[in-house]
TrEMBL record:
Transmembrane segment boundaries: 50-74
InterPro entries listed in its UniProt record: MLTG-like
Lineage, top ranks: Bacteria, Bacillati, Actinomycetota, Actinomycetes, Bifidobacteriales
Chain spans, region Disordered: 16-43
GO process terms (BP): cell wall organization; peptidoglycan biosynthetic process
Catalyzed reactions per annotation: a peptidoglycan chain = a peptidoglycan chain with N-acetyl-1,6-anhydromuramyl-[peptide] at the reducing end + a peptidoglycan chain with N-acetylglucosamine at the non-reducing end
Site keyed Important for catalytic activity: positions: 271
HAMAP family listed in its UniProt record: MltG
Protein name listed in UniProt: Endolytic murein transglycosylase
Family membership: Belongs to the transglycosylase MltG family.
Organism: Bifidobacterium ruminantium
Superkingdom: Bacteria
EC number: 4.2.2.29
EC top class, as a word: lyase
Recorded GO MF terms: lytic endotransglycosylase activity
Length: 393
């Protein structure tokens, strides 16, 4: 390689002669005039060769260094990536060992849930849990869940996203009676139902508004409530406070009119098979009151006896000692007979115009209900109900 470089620089050190015409290049160097100049030129050539060799070696070394560094960096990055991947998929194989309970609180963030699961050794890593949520596009629900230690993250997500497996929460359904509500709340909270009955039978001081007259029926707002770790009084108060807030939001008149609307709405909720019929049922109630007629609602009679309508006997239907027997006693019932939902309350406030006095659910399968104005029309739709019911059997 040195000889090649020497030949290269020697060739380039030759004087260039022109073949005639004028040249734009600068004039060539003059030939040496003495041996001293020759030695000087040779020394300069030698130094140039050395500089070139050093430069080439430096470039080669630099390229080799970059290559070595690059390979090392790639290996490092691969190792880091593999480490991260290993961390993300770090998971237990399941199905789990020791039984534990786990609580998801209302409004709790996913990362906090993941941390708590790792702390209780239910899942092995936060990343495994969050990855399982993303893979399943799951929604987590608040509640108290029965889990195990050392579970697969995907199995935990499946449970926490199943609302039916959530304990510690009580639901109030539209049309439910107070007796049903407190039974569910007692079960969900792990308390004895007697603790709730004490509150219900105690007159509601400090809990109920004055217009409720010490009675809770109708004053528990439908919805889902967190009951874990709460007293029976706190749980019931939460339901009442939610009801008052909802009535205010719906612009239900305050005072005695509010209780009256709840009574009408509760009867309509219990009698109507379709939400769209609540308004017509409310109108029938008002029309019957205007004409001084008994309401004649079996649902109210059944409530007074604490049974379902299908359990009523002819004797019970004629028992006027039952204050909720609207077949015998005129006017509205003493209290609501259930906890009505929004649609029934709005229907009671603004029922449609009509002269209906009677209604019959003529088709039990579809819930079709017909409303009529006269007694003759009533017997016709009553016969229609019988015919449909016989055919159904």
């Amino acid at each position: 390689m040195t000889e090649d470089l020497d030949e290269y620089f020697s060739d380039n050190a030759e004087w260039v002669e022109t073949s005639g015409g004028a040249s734009a290049d600068p004039e060539p160097s003059q030939p040496p005039k003495s041996r001293r100049d020759i030695r000087k030129r040779r020394e300069m050539r030698r130094r140039r060769r050395m500089v070139t060799v050093v430069a080439v070696i430096s470039v080669i070394a630099l390229i080799a260094g970059i290559g070595f560094f690059g390979v090392g960096m790639i290996r490092h990055l691969k190792a880091a990536t593999a480490s991260d991947t290993s961390l993300q998929i770090e998971d237990y194989k399941g199905p789990g060992d020791k039984a534990v309970t786990f609580t998801v609180k209302t409004g709790q963030a996913t990362d906090q849930i993941a941390r708590n699961l790792v702390k209780k050794d239910i899942v092995k890593s936060e990343s495994a849990f969050t990855s399982a949520i993303a893979a399943a596009s799951a929604t987590l629900y608040p509640g108290v869940y029965a889990l195990k230690t050392h579970m697969r993250a995907a199995d935990v997500v499946k449970i926490l996203s199943d609302q039916s497996k959530a304990g510690g929460f009580a639901e109030v359904k539209a049309g439910e009676r107070v007796s049903d509500v407190i039974a569910n709340a007692a079960k969900a909270s792990g308390q004895d139902v007697s603790e709730f009955k004490v509150i219900i039978d105690g007159g509601g001081k400090g809990i109920l508004p004055d217009e409720a007259n010490g009675k809770f029926e109708g004053w528990l707002e439908p919805g889902t409530y967190e009951v874990q770790g709460k007293s029976a009084e706190t749980i019931i108060k939460d339901m009442v406070d939610a009801r008052v807030a909802k009535l205010d939001a719906l612009n239900v008149p305050a005072g005695s009119e509010r209780e009256r609307i709840l009574i009408i709405a509760s009867i309509a909720e219990s009698e109507a098979n379709n939400p769209d019929d609540c308004g017509k049922v409310a109108r029938v109630i008002l029309n019957r009151i205007d004409q001084d007629m008994p309401l004649g609602m079996d649902s109210t009679v059944a409530y007074g006896f604490g049974i379902n309508g299908s359990q009523l006997t002819d004797e019970q239907l004629q028992d006027g000692s039952n204050p909720y027997n609207t077949r015998v006693n005129k006017g509205l019932t003493p209290t609501p007979i259930s906890n009505p939902g929004d649609s029934a309350i709005q229907a009671a406030m603004n029922p449609p115009e009509g002269k209906w006095l009677y209604f019959v659910t003529t088709n039990l399968k579809t819930g079709e209900t017909k409303f009529v104005e006269t007694e003759d029309e009533f017997w016709k739709i009553r016969d229609e109900y019988k015919n449909n019911n016989e055919n159904a059997n």
